[in-house]
Structure formats: structure tokens, C-alpha cells
């Protein structure tokens, strides 16, 4: 039977998923043979990917920590992926036990996994959603239940936008998401860029095109507009390891530019 | 993170910290640990302290190192490289920390690291298996959720396909399926269809627009739904303003009548909106049939027909299906369908009835009367089909054919005698409305046949539309202009606006047969003298229809009536009979 248009995306463990690849690169085993096979191909082209993934994950931890310290109590994490280590609610609740978090991912497996992980924890939810339909996310029943859009919100868009191609209008999507947030809200973005990329980017792109979410290639300059009129907090949009590092050395094991990921946090005036 | 105190006598905290720092540096990047760097060092310092205690314990027991291996993985220091780097760093750094050299403590360090490796790999294996298990479960869960969502959306789609969006009621497709199932599966013996039309709806929509129309419809639907639920009968929205209720095994006609009355009472309550009070009305057609041998399509057609009957009765009425009436209507419908073919096959013919001058009983004209020789039903009189021909618009074509026949026949008679009769042909209002067409037909015919115009008379029925319609008036004037006679048929039976008579270009008033039939020799009250006088005052000749007795004829003569028509003077008959009649007369004259 043909899959009708209104059906949610199917589950195909034979097809690699960006969420499970990310988990693999972070050292997790929440993945399948198809994911690992592709991960090996990616690693052959770009052996730094695990380090980049780790650096990105570390940024998320630092950003959420900073946001919780700044008084943010509600987090909307779009493209949350397979919840591996150091999830947003764990980091946020170390600072603020009453923090509320909604995880959003396109991958039904990621959402199911998150649901199991957070089962029984009040104030935390995982929903299936597509960032390309921001209205659906913003008006989702669960989102409306847990997130009060009259109070500052932290919107987390971590390592997501590189999987939204230009024809899907990421600028419009981000404008709509920003527009839904009240003054004093924050937006954290990390984005894989081609500026510092030393590896064969076409190869990586073509590999990702086999996943459910093909990759887009952008430069740092092309990432800046995603913040709109939000004011970037120090140190601005920088290489992901340079954003408020918690150790002075290069102990993350990767030189800044090699990360090929830029990251920043903006505040809505 | 609490740093456990180093075993006394061996070393101080700063040494431990240095080892932990070197360890952290060595394993950095090998796996992701969700901790700030300072916390990582603290955690590793704790492990270092415990390992040092194991290494220097008396007697030596390496087994606690296994647990430390497990804990390393639990703290997410979990990758093959992490183990390799850990062994390298600890093999180098632990002996000096313990105050010995690797050589002297070699065996202990080896057994310590071996125990640590066992714990580490065990932990890693457990963790991998757990994660594999959890992702598999998540997949199964997601699969179930997806299928559930798919089913729900399909369910919703299916529901939408068989339900009406506006009212949420089952739609026609659903209802027809329900009826078909009932017929197929039996269970009930009888089923009644209650076909409900909300007759006020169209007017509401016309007057207030679709929004209010829809509002009235949804309120109506809600009322009906409530009633249907309380009665326990399924309800559907059939189409537009039509609803249908299915009643299984109704307890007789009184029961059905009760249901219909209830529905009408429920629906005829006005609907309140913000600004309007909308009057509501409904009509209902009821059909009650045995299930056995039932044809769903036929029963719905019957229900629809019955609803039309109810509507024709007036507002807020219901009607019960009547087989005889239905048969008549079906027959009528079939006859209408036959008309066009009948004209094509020339199944229509004319009979002629003499129009007689009272003065000398001479046949001065004949009225052409149409008959249909129907292939199945035999000979049919105009009463059976003229209305159908008018309704279906076939009258114009049929009328044209008859005019043609009549004119040709008139021409035949004109050849036969010196005083030939004129032929009087009935013309229907649709033919008159086709004014230019009729004028052209008549003009062409007269030319083609070579008939003197005064030998053709057109009979028009007294009609409400003639005086007010300048177009019709013009047509009559034009026809009269050709020299063709005009007669006003059935005078006095219908609409009588005497005023317009003065200006109508007619030659003859045909007094309706009712007046003659009602006259008795003993009558003191009769309009006949007045009607004759009226005709004469207007300088028209008076013809009385329906004369069946000598008495009637003599009376009419006594009041000065000019002409008569009726069985007494001759029935409608074949042209050949008229010909014989004319020949007799000519012979007598000779």
C-alpha cells in the first residue's frame, strides 16, 4: 500500500539517520548496522567527526548551563536527536530543578527513545516535529502545555540547521520561531560550516544525502542572519570550542577551526 | 565531587591531582563525557586515590579495581581508546605515586590493571547491550506509534469520507451502505425511510447568505440528531437540505405518522441567531417496505418522490408513499419520454369536429383535434399528453407538425367545394411565445400549401398572460394581419379580464361547454344569453361548445348564438368522414 501523505514518517532502520549517526560519533550504541556502516565511510573521509560531535555536545552543555544560570526555566530543544549523554534537562536541572524542557525531533525513534528516558518526569516532554513546519511545533499541544510564551524561553537549535536546505527557507523558519519568543528569550545555535572544513565536503554532503535529512553547506557569515535581531552574548558567533570554554587548554582534543562548527547564543531585546 | 584522601604515608593530594590531570589529558577526545573539565579531573583523582589504595593494600587484592573499571564506564569514560590510554597513564604513573618503581611493583600493577580492564570491558559490554536494547525498544515503540498514527489518520480519513463535514452526521455514502447491509443481512422484516427536506433553508440562504444558511442547517441537524438518538433510529444527511432517518420494523403507519409529526414539530421551531429569528419548516416523505426483495435504489427514489408530494401539499406536511400515484407519475414520465420519438415517427394525427352555423346548420368550419397513436398504449386523447408536451417543450414541434397537417387538409377541402370550411387549430401558449417562429411557420405554410388565410383559424386559450404580455399581443396582431382567423377558446372557464377583449384581434368567442352543460330548459339563471350578447357587443361571433341535444341547440338559436359545436352536430372524426359530409352538403345544395 502506498503510504498516504498524512502518515507520519516511517521507520526504516535500513536507512541511516543523522540522529543515530550523531549518537555513534559520541560513542553511543543507539544505532544500527546501517548507521555504523555509514559512520565508517564518513570517518574515512573526515576522521575528526567524533571530536566535532563531542565539541558540539560540550557547547550544548555549556550553553544550557549558562542559560539556566541566567534564570531561564523553559527550554525548547529542536532537533534533540537520540538522547545520549548530558541531556538538556539533566544539565538545566542541576542548576534549576524546576526547569521545563520540550524535546522535538523529526526521527520517530529518537522521540520514542526520549519518551522512555524521561518517562515519569514532570515538566519534560518529547514530541515529534519537523523544524520545517515551525507553526506545528509552536502550536503543539504539549509545547503549549509546558512552555509559557509570555515568559523567556531558551530555544536550542543545535547542529540542526545544516540539515535544512535553502529551498526549505531556514531564514523564514528561524524568523517565525524567533517571533514566537518574548523579550528576554535566548536562542542558541550551532551550525556545521564549510569555512574550516579540511575534508572532502562534497563527499560528506553526498553521504548525508542518503539519510533522511540531507545536509546543506553554509559559511559562518551565512549563519549570522539566523539570529535576526537577537543580540549575541559574549563571545558572539565563534568556533564551537571557543564559546565560553571551561578549560583553557585544547583538552577537547580539537583545534578551534578544525571543529568546523560555529556556535553562539543570542538574546531577544 | 569529593576527593578521597590519599592513603596516609604515601603521597599528598597534589601528586594525585597531577596524575589525574595527565590521565584526563590522555583520554580527552576519546569519548564524550558530559562534565566540565574540572569535574573530570576531580572524578579521575577519586579513581586514582582508590587505585593507589588497592595497589598498596596488604594483603594485595586487585578485585576492587574491577569495580573502578565498571565505574569509569558508568561515568561515560567509555571507548576502547579510553581504556588503552588509561592503562598507559596508570602503568607509568601509579608506581611512582606508590613510592615504588614499575619493576618492583610490576606484578601488582599488572594484576591491578588487568582487574580494571576486566571491569571496564564488562561495563562497556553491558552498556553497549543496554543501549542496543533501548534503541531497539524505541524502534518498536516508534513503529507502534507510527502505525497507530497511520491507523488513526486512515480512520479519520475513512470517517471523513462517510461523514458530512458541516453537521458531522453520516453522509449519503454511509447511509446507502447501511441500507444495503440491512437488506443483505436481514434481521428486520420491514424498513421505513423517513426522507426529510428542510424547506425553509433555501430561502434563508437566499436572503441571509451561506453563513446563516449553514448555521440554520447545523442547528437543524443537531435537533434532528437529538431526536433520532432518543428514538433510536439512525440518521444521515443525504444531500443539501435533505436528511434521512431509517426506521427498522416500524409499528405500523400510525407509528410512522407519530415519528413524522415529532420531526416536524422539532424542526419547525425557529432558529435563533445573534440577530435573526429564522422561521423553519420541513416536509417529509415516508416509505414503508418489506425488506425481502427490496431494491435500495428504488426505495430511495420512492422516498424522494414522496417528499416532493409532501412539499407540494404545503409546508410542514408529511406524505406516505402511494404506489398507485407513483405508478401514474412513472407512466406520465415514460409518456413524456416517448413524446419526442412519437413526433419523429409521425404517431400523431388529427380528427376534425364540425363547427356548425345554427341559422342553416351548415358546416362552416372544423376544429382539428390531435390524437396520438401510441405504439404500446394505443389511441390517446390530448388530455393524456398535451400538458406533458407543454412541460417538456415538445409542444412547439408537435404544434408545427399539426398546423402543417391541418393546412394541407384544409386545402384539400377547398379544392372540393365552393364553400369550404375553415380549419381551427389549437395553439398553445409556448407556441405563441415563440412568436416570430409561429408567424413564419403560418406564413410559409399558407404560401406553400396555397391556402387562403381565412380558411385557417387559430384557437388560443383564454390565458392570464395574454393581456399583460406585449410580445404575445404583437404576435396575435401579426397573425391576424395575415388574414388568419383567431378564436378565443373555452371562454368563461378561466381567466376573464373583459377589458382586454376589446383590443384583442379575435373573430370568435368559443363559449366553454360548461355553460351549455349546466343549462336546463327550466333554468332561470344562465349566463349564456349574456355571453352571446357580450360576443356580439364586441362584434365577435359566438360559438357554443358541447352541444349534445336538440333542446340545447334550439335554446342557443333562440338567444341568437351564431355557431355550435358538439356531439349533437358531429363528433370528432376522420378527415375522410368530413369529406363525405361536405360532399353530401354540396350535393344537397346542388
TrEMBL record, chain B:
Domain of life: Bacteria
Pfam short name (any one): EAL
Domain spans labelled EAL: 332-586
InterPro entries in the cross-refs: Cyclic-di-GMP_PDE-like, EAL_dom, EAL_sf, GGDEF_dom, Nucleotide_cyclase, Rev_trsase/Diguanyl_cyclase
SUPFAM superfamilies per the UniProt record, alphabetical: EAL domain-like, Nucleotide cyclase
Molecular functions (GO terms): cyclic-guanylate-specific phosphodiesterase activity
Stretches assigned to the GGDEF domain: 189-323
UniProt protein name: Diguanylate cyclase (GGDEF)-like protein
Organism, scientific name: Catenuloplanes indicus
Amino acid at each position: 500500500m502506498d503510504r498516504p501523505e498524512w502518515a507520519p514518517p516511517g521507520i526504516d532502520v535500513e536507512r541511516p539517520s543523522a540522529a543515530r549517526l550523531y549518537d555513534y560519533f559520541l560513542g553511543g550504541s543507539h544505532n544500527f548496522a546501517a548507521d555504523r556502516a555509514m559512520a565508517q565511510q564518513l570517518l574515512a573521509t573526515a576522521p575528526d567527526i567524533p571530536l566535532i560531535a563531542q565539541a558540539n555536545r560540550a557547547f550544548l552543555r555549556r550553553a544550557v548551563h549558562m542559560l539556566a544560570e541566567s534564570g531561564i526555566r523553559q527550554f525548547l530543544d529542536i532537533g534533540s536527536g537520540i538522547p545520549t549523554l548530558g541531556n538538556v534537562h539533566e544539565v538545566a536541572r542541576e542548576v534549576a530543578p524546576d526547569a521545563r524542557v520540550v524535546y522535538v525531533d523529526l526521527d520517530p525513534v529518537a522521540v520514542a527513545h526520549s519518551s522512555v528516558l524521561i518517562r515519569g518526569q514532570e515538566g519534560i516532554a518529547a514530541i515529534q516535529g519537523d523544524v520545517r513546519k515551525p507553526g506545528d511545533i509552536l502550536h503543539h499541544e504539549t509545547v503549549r502545555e509546558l512552555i509559557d510564551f509570555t515568559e523567556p524561553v531558551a530555544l536550542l537549535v543545535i547542529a540542526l540547521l545544516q540539515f535544512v536546505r535553502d529551498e526549505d527557507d531556514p531564514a523564514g523558519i528561524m524568523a517565525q520561531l524567533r517571533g514566537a519568543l518574548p523579550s528576554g528569550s535566548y536562542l542558541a545555535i550551532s551550525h556545521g560550516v564549510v569555512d574550516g572544513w579540511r575534508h572532502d565536503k562534497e563527499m560528506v554532503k553526498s553521504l548525508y544525502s542518503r539519510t533522511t535529512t540531507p545536509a546543506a553547506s553554509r559559511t559562518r557569515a551565512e549563519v549570522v542572519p539566523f539570529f535576526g535581531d537577537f543580540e549575541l552574548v559574549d563571545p558572539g558567533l565563534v568556533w564551537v570550542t571557543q564559546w565560553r570554554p571551561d578549560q583553557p587548554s585544547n583538552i577537547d582534543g580539537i583545534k578551534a577551526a578544525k571543529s568546523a562548527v560555529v556556535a553562539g547564543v543570542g538574546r531577544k531585546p | 565531587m569529593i576527593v578521597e584522601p590519599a592513603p596516609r604515608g604515601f603521597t599528598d593530594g597534589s601528586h594525585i591531582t597531577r596524575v589525574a590531570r595527565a590521565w584526563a589529558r590522555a583520554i580527552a577526545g576519546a569519548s564524550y563525557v558530559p562534565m566540565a573539565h574540572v569535574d573530570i579531573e576531580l572524578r579521575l583523582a577519586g579513581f586514582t586515590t582508590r587505585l593507589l589504595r588497592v595497589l598498596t593494600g596488604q594483603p594485595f587484592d586487585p578485585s576492587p579495581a574491577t569495580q573502578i573499571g565498571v565505574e569509569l564506564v558508568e561515568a561515560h569514560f567509555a571507548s576502547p581508546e579510553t581504556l588503552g590510554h588509561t592503562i598507559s597513564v596508570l602503568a607509568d604513573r601509579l608506581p611512582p605515586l606508590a613510592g615504588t618503581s614499575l619493576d618492583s611493583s610490576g606484578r601488582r600493577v599488572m594484576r591491578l590493571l588487568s582487574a580494571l580492564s576486566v571491569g571496564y570491558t564488562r561495563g562497556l559490554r553491558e552498556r553497549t547491550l543496554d543501549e542496543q536494547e533501548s534503541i531497539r525498544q524505541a524502534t518498536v515503540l516508534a513503529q507502534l506509534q507510527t502505525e497507530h498514527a497511520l491507523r488513526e489518520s486512515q480512520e479519520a480519513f475513512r470517517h471523513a469520507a462517510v461523514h458530512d463535514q458541516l453537521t458531522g452526521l453520516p453522509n449519503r455514502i454511509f447511509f446507502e451502505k447501511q441500507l444495503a447491509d440491512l437488506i443483505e443481512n436481514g434481521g428486520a422484516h420491514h424498513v421505513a425511510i423517513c426522507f426529510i427536506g428542510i424547506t425553509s433553508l433555501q430561502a434563508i440562504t437566499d436572503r441571509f447568505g451561506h453563513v446563516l444558511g449553514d448555521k440554520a442547517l447545523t442547528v437543524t441537524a443537531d435537533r434532528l440528531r437529538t431526536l433520532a438518538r432518543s428514538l433510536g433510529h439512525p440518521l444521515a444527511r443525504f444531500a443539501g437540505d435533505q436528511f434521512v432517518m431509517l426506521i427498522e420494523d416500524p409499528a405500523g403507519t400510525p407509528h410512522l405518522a407519530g415519528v413524522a409529526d415529532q420531526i416536524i414539530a422539532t424542526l419547525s421551531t425557529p432558529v435563533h441567531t445573534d440577530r435573526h429569528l429564522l422561521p423553519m419548516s420541513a416536509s417529509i416523505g415516508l416509505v414503508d417496505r418489506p425488506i425481502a426483495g427490496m431494491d435500495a435504489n428504488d426505495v430511495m427514489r420512492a422516498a424522494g418522490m414522496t417528499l416532493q408530494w409532501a412539499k407540494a401539499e404545503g409546508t410542514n406536511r408529511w406524505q406516505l408513499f402511494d404506489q398507485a400515484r407513483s405508478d401514474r407519475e412513472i407512466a406520465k414520465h415514460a409518456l413524456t419520454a416517448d413524446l419526442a420519438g412519437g413526433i419523429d415517427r409521425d404517431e400523431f394525427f388529427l380528427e376534425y369536429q364540425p363547427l356548425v352555423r345554427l341559422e342553416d346548420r351548415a358546416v362552416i368550419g372544423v376544429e382539428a383535434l390531435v390524437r396520438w397513436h401510441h405504439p404500446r398504449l394505443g389511441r390517446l386523447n390530448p388530455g393524456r399528453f398535451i400538458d406533458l408536451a407543454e412541460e417538456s417543450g415538445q409542444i412547439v414541434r408537435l404544434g408545427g407538425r399539426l398546423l402543417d397537417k391541418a393546412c394541407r387538409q384544409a386545402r384539400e377541402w377547398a379544392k372540393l367545394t365552393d364553400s369550404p370550411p375553415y380549419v381551427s387549430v389549437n395553439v398553445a401558449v409556448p407556441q405563441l411565445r415563440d412568436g416570430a417562429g409561429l408567424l413564419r411557420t403560418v406564413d410559409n405554410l399558407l404560401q406553400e400549401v396555397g391556402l387562403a388565410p381565412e380558411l385557417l383559424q387559430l384557437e388560443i386559450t383564454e390565458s392570464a398572460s395574454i393581456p399583460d404580455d406585449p410580445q404575445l399581443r404583437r404576435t396575435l396582431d401579426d397573425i391576424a394581419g395575415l388574414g388568419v382567423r383567431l378564436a378565443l377558446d373555452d371562454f368563461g372557464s378561466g381567466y376573464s379580464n373583459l377589458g382586454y377583449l376589446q383590443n384583442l384581434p379575435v373573430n370568435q368567442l368559443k363559449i366553454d361547454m360548461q355553460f351549455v352543460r349546466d343549462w336546463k330548459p327550466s333554468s332561470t339563471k344562465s349566463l349564456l344569453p349574456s355571453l352571446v350578447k357580450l360576443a356580439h357587443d364586441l362584434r365577435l361571433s359566438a360559438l357554443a361548445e358541447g352541444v349534445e341535444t336538440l333542446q340545447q341547440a334550439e335554446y342557443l338559436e333562440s338567444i341568437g348564438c351564431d355557431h355550435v359545436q358538439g356531439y349533437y352536430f358531429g363528433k370528432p372524426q376522420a378527415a375522410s368522414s368530413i369529406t363525405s359530409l361536405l360532399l353530401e352538403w354540396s350535393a344537397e345544395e346542388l
